[in-house]
Amino acid sequence: MSDRPRRIAVFDSGLGGLSVLLHLRRLLPHAGLVYLADQARAPYGDRAESEVLTYSAQVVAHLTAGGCDAVVVACNTASSVALEPLRAMFPTTPIIGMEPAVKPAAASTASGVIAVLATTRTVEGERLARLIAAYAEGVTVITQACPGLVELVEDGLVDAPETRTAVRQYIQPLVERGADTLVLGCTHYSFLEAIIREEAGEHVTVIDPAEAVARRAATIAGAGAGEAMVRFETTGDPVRLRRQLTELLGTAHPTFGVDLMGVAAP
Asked: Any alpha helices (H) in 157-237, and if so which ranges?
């Protein structure tokens, strides 16, 4: 077995997967982490399934070629469309995906009504439909696509008035229909959790699966040793990513541009 320190990769179409990365950094402070944002082709949420699968496969091929031993697909859309195909394409690499927390939401609701906030592609995907069928019997599940929220986070408008207006537009009808539990079905929405909680009201529970996914990834991938670093990559503008990281994380980080257009997937 190689003595090279293990590396765990986290990828998303944009910045949402940072919510998973932050939990992983806390759980595995000495592991090497790589974060890749496919910003040149973001957001994935409104793209065709064939595009999402192709892009995801190119990302994982790049990450594994770069020495990553495990990959977290920290994008609900990519997980919904591409998780099982990716596992078949890369059988020796542990690949951990996102999953809307329908099961714990259905188990904890008092009103019998829960809502899943997600991108259009996740809402329409078979993965979410299977989760609802498996774990939400007897519970009313409202699936709410939220176009525009991803872009607001990407543009650094987390605390902007227009963001609160957009969140209120999506949340209020759900609360009026009796939803007492909201599931964040897109990693970008983690950065809007405070606003979502405020708009939903204190009687509504908000469930973010990012920490649970990070715990699972930490268990599967193992701690590694020695590298204790995070490398940030983007298919978009690395200068823009550097600015975004400073805005969202409060600290500056080096960023690197990558080109995946010529990457061949298995």
From this structure: 161-176, 193-200, 210-221
Q: What is the pLDDT of residues 85-129, one digit of tens each?
A: 999 999 999 999 999 999 999 999 999 999 999 999 899 989 999
CA 31 to chain centre: 20
Please tell me the distance from the alpha carbon of residue 266 to that of residue 263, in angstroms, as a whole number.
10
Which class for 126: exposed (0-12), middle (13-18), buried (19 or more C-beta within 10 A)?
A: exposed
Write down the pLDDT at residue 225.
55
Contact between residue 13 and residue 43 where contact means Cβ atoms under 8 Å apart: yes
- Catalytic positions are 75, 186
Q: Is the peptide bond before 43 cis (omega within 30 degrees of 0)?
A: yes
Q: Which domains does the chain have, with CATH numbers?
A: 7-98+211-257 (3.40.50.1860), 102-208 (3.40.50.1860)
pLDDT of residue 235: 98
Locate 28 and state its tokens. Answer: 């595995």
Residues in the chain: 266
